[in-house]
Amino acid sequence: MSRAFNRKKDKSWMHTPEALAKHFIAYNAKFLGNTEVDQPKGTEVVRDAVRKLKFQRHIKKSEGQKIPKVELQISIYGVKILDPKTKEVQHNCQLHRISFCADDKTDKRIFTFICKDSESNKHLCYVFDSEKCAEEITLTIGQAFDLAYKKFLESGGKDVETRKQIGSLQKRIQELETENSELKKQLQTLEEQLLIAQVPPGGGNSKVPTDIFDMVPFSPVAPLVPLPASNASPPPPPARPAEMRKDLFGAEPFDPFICGAADFPPDIQSRLDEMQEGFKMGLTVEGTVFSLDPLDGRC
Description:
The chain is rod-shaped. Strand 5 and strand 6 (110-116) form a beta hairpin. The protein is α+β, with helices and mostly antiparallel strands. The chain has helices at residues 17-21, 43-62, 134-155, 158-197, 266-281, and strands at 25-36, 69-75, 78-82, 89-94, 98-103, 110-116, 123-129, 283-285, 288-290.
């Protein structure tokens, strides 16, 4: 990886190896932002990126926006960019993805590094503003590279592969946690919809549904069909109820559907027979005979 550290060869490293290998070195700076670049290295490449981001910051400053402050944590594993108050990680640039780092000769406050994004595989140039520590931050990143390279040689390259695997697993864990959170939200929404759809026990309205005329529909019950007798005779009349209401005179009401010939006394039955025979032969009213025979000319 090409870096702009070799111009400080005569200067010794500023930190102990343990500080960068087991812990990290923290710096405060202003973050101008990052922008995509075409090449993974080069002084002209970072110079164009610095010019572009400065112009964008000048416009935002005229609109009243201030340059955000960040905290840089540098170690042999990479450079983390955090919010100085909440300590929330905004960017995590792994060291093996950083291809170029340099401070600006014309502006001593500016320092930059180029890192390859793990998701889009694009090269992004990160630009920072620090009034007093720009050169020191650049040297600290250079020392982290030197220690990481020595550790790589001692482990035979296994340490880098292990970190890559750990990074992939951490990324997968984060994706699964995000997916799990979304599924929990969907499950909660479905449970709320189910509770709304269900009628609480004892609190619902048991009103029978009606039609447009506010009439209760017929119940789909099969009609009663009388069963024929075994000798093909009509079914017997229904049995009389044990107790029937009587009229004002104490007599039982007459029901032609349940009365048979045997229900009348003999004298009344004979009188009925005579009347039926009279209707067959003719009808006499006050001495005048009316014939029911259409061929009879009497009138």
